[in-house]
Amino acid sequence: MKEKFDISGMSCAACVSHVEKAVCKLEGAKEVNVSLMTNSMTVVHDDNLTSREIIDAVTKAGYGASLKGEKDTAGSGALTEIDETAGMKRRFFVSLCCLIPLFYIGMGKMLGFPLPASFIAPENAVNYAFTQFLLVLPIMFMNRVYYERGFRSMALGAPNMDSLIAIGSMTAVVYGVFAIYRMSTGIAAGNMDLVHHYLSNLYFEGGGMVLTLITLGKFLESRSRKKTGQAIEKLMDLSPKTAFVIRDGVETEIPVEEVVIGDILAVRPGESIPVDGKIVSGSTSVDEAAITGESIPVEKSVGDTVIGATINKTGYFTMSASRVGSDTTISKIIELVEEAASSKAPVSQLADKIASIFVPAVIIIAAAVTVIWLLVTKDSGFAISMGVAVLVISCPCSLGLATPLAIMVGTGKGAENGILIKSAEALEIAHNVDTVVLDKTGTITEGKPRVTDIITKEGVSQLKLISMASALEKFSEHPLSLAVVEKAAEDHAAVREGEDFKAYFGKGIEGKINGSTYFCGNKAFIEEMGVSADSFAQDSERLAMEGKTILYFADENVLMGIIAVADTVKPESRDAISALKNMGMKVVMLTGDNKVTGEAIAAQTGIDEAICQVLPDRKEEVIRQLKDEGHITAMVGDGINDAPALTRADVGIAIGAGSDIAIESADIVLMKSSLADCAGAFELSRAVMKNIRQNLFWAFFYNSCAIPIAAGVLYPFFGIKLSPMIGGAAMSFSSLCVVTNALRLRGFKPSLYKENKVSETNKIEETKEVLSMEKTMVIEGMSCKHCSARVEKALQDIGVQAKVDLEKKTALVTMENAVEDAKLIKAVEDAGYDVISVK
User: 574: phi > 0 → left, psi -120 to 50 → alpha, else beta; which?
Assistant: First the structure.
């Protein structure tokens, strides 16, 4: 039996671990998956284990729980990411306002800062100490969450970083209070030596600094994370809220929830299809990009299956509902996203893992030091000060900042390079990824069809063919037609007017140009019109093997040429895939396309494996299989259909120009929609994790040296005893080293940009956008000097200079100001000549 629960009160990976442990202890619990990102838990259990027992176990662990959708046992939901970040920001600034005067007073003597006489005089030592105590109290109160979580985790036998913070800061303050009482006793007894002893052993500023710096680190880390919980809600918004049902011959609008299997529904052009079903009358083309991710609409007619949440593009049709409610394809995708999000185990922070050993070790060392010095010196104050010195100097400032500061700088640098990283977990996992799975459409390719090849019969130029084809295709809204029209515009082909346009559904189009009839469509359509396609058989077969769609263009008697259209590979995709392979990763492509198209793209880009004709649930299944084989996976996609796979993968990477659902489901977003940034994201992850390891090494090197000195190992030989001032300075220096090392990441730059492989592509695109003040017109019909003079005069009359080359049949047009191509063409055609192209 599987049940889902909402969990409140979780704030870190340790919380997730505590909830999982609490439920796993229950008899009958088989599998427990807790997600911090969705604040949810999925439990697979025997029938004898009730949901009430599961909720009680979570409640006893200190968290709120409820069945999915019900009010939780804590009476309030978990804090949102925005609330949490705002709370940390408020805590930090309040703490900082108290820490500045506290640090000034506490360290003023050592640093030579001027202090009031009421603080300097020995007889006013209590004033000096009590003022520090009053300043540290607000810091402790504002950051009391560390004590709540830290001591609770210790009670559960799983100490974490919060435990270190709580013990270190609390011990420093408690010892400071003890020192105040001892100084009061010394002043009353006139024992100024006792006063001086404790006056130089105050730890208030150390405790306040620990709390403030750790809060700063956690605030910076939290701020770098973005909202990720809206993907499911946006998925739910895809399906229309109502449907037009035909019952007893009457069309009525009803809520989509009231649609039942067998209902006949009416769907108009531009509307979303409400549920899954089959067409019973009419025909249309359906944009299934929301489900399949493929850019080209699919032709549908009677008997064909249609999917809920896809868009009806062109025709009116009626359909019979076959799957409704939670059985629809879009509902299944929502379920997959929820399940994958819940099953993704959060990555425990490396520092938290170390803390589970480090905290008890420090406590044992501090206790042992106190006991040893008490036995040796018989001086309880000296012994306690030694024990406290060990705890204070081992307070985890550098250890706590090692991870969040490196992540903060890394995520900031990623944002500068168009790589938006949503969580620290994504960075931590990404450096271990060994298999990268890429969606084809919009990720490897442009995501829209473009003309790639134009092959013509002898005597027909490519410009003339694309110009004539455009004259027919511009009447159609089909993506393939738009590709032809765009190609004609890019090549500055002459604008021709078509008439008597006829569309043959799923086949092609017919129209007249200058009184002659022409056809454009697939091979079957052209042959149906009585024109043989055999003359281009070899070229057609070759282009089809490359995964391209072929449009045939013919007049009433002969095939004039073919136009190949395909979703072309992005310029940077090959280099990006090569970079991923050079990092030791296997690259796999998933696509809903046929095998021929998929394998052609794989061959062009150097992809290791292509898995074709994959539906949304199958994409998620492939990721699951790879993970079951022990691979650490990353999924890169841009469509709604990629959302379950993005969420299931260890790291989900979305293309920024893709759907909002894919972006919300992903851990990393490539804002420039460039696959080159995918390789950059992995390089950045490896650089950040290397930096974190260096920071942690320094933190432990510092502790391994500082703790023995604080414990007094040098005291018997050299009389060296670590004072709190030096301990505080050493702690600050350790943190400064960590911060400085983390800032080195600001020099990071993805290797593909260093090598200018991407920038050169961008320069080419920028060059294309520069407006030229010279244009060349290809003109037919000129045969003598009189013709050239007439053309030149016609162009001069509209304010441009022209020089005709009769041999090349061209006119070089020079303009001081930009003139539209249409105006140039009209001037020449009005003079009695045909314009083939304008470049």
Answer: alpha
pLDDT at site 136: 94
Cα 212 from Cα 151, distance rounded (Å) = 19
State how far the Cα of 422 lies from the Cα of 222, in Å rounded to an integer: 10
Indicate whether 111 pLDDT > 50.
yes
- pLDDT at res. 773: 65
Using H for helix, E for strand and C for coil, what is the string for 603-646? HHHCCCEEECCCCHHHHHHHHHHHHHCCCCEEEEECCHHHHHHH
Query: Can you tell me the mean pLDDT for 306-310?
Result: 87
* Percentage with pLDDT > 90 across the chain: 13
What tokens were used for 102? Answer: 């506290």
| DSSP element (H, E) containing 525 | helix 523-528
Q: Residue 261: helix, strand or coil by DSSP?
A: coil
Q: Which long-range contacts (CB under 8 A, 24 or more apart) does 781-788 make?
A: 781/832, 781/833, 781/834, 782/806, 782/809, 782/833, 787/833
Q: How far is CA 272 from CA 305, 310, 313, 487, 727, in A?
A: 14, 6, 9, 30, 67
Nearest 5°: the CA angle 716, 718, 721 is: 75
3-state DSSP call for residue 834?
Answer: strand
Q: Is 492 left (phi over 0), alpha (psi -120 to 50) or beta?
A: left
Q: What is the pLDDT of residues 423-472, one digit of tens each?
A: 667 778 888 899 999 988 778 888 778 888 999 988 888 888 888 888 88
774-780 vs 834-838, strand pairing mode: antiparallel
- Terminal CA-to-CA distance of the chain, rounded, Å? 68
Q: What is the pTM for the complete model shown?
A: 0.56
User: Is residue 65 within 8 Å of 6, Cβ to Cβ?
Assistant: yes
Higher pLDDT, 145 or 385: 145
Contact indicator for 454, 558 with CB cutoff of 8 Å: no
In angstroms, the Cα distances linking 395 to 148, 406, 714, 766 are 17, 19, 21, 54
Say how far apart CA 392 and CA 370 lie, in whole Å.
14
**What DSSP element (H or E) covers 6?**
strand 2-8
Distance CA(290)–CA(287), nearest Å, equals 8
More confident residue, 496 or 293: 496
- pLDDT single digits (tens) 199-250: 877 778 877 887 887 787 667 655 644 433 444 555 566 778 889 999 888 8
702's CB contacts (< 8 A; 6+ apart) are 398, 730, 734, 737
Name the active-site residue from 6, 287, 352, 439.
439
Give the count of alpha carbons within 13 A of 493, CB side only: 21
Query: Catalytic annotation on 642?
Result: no
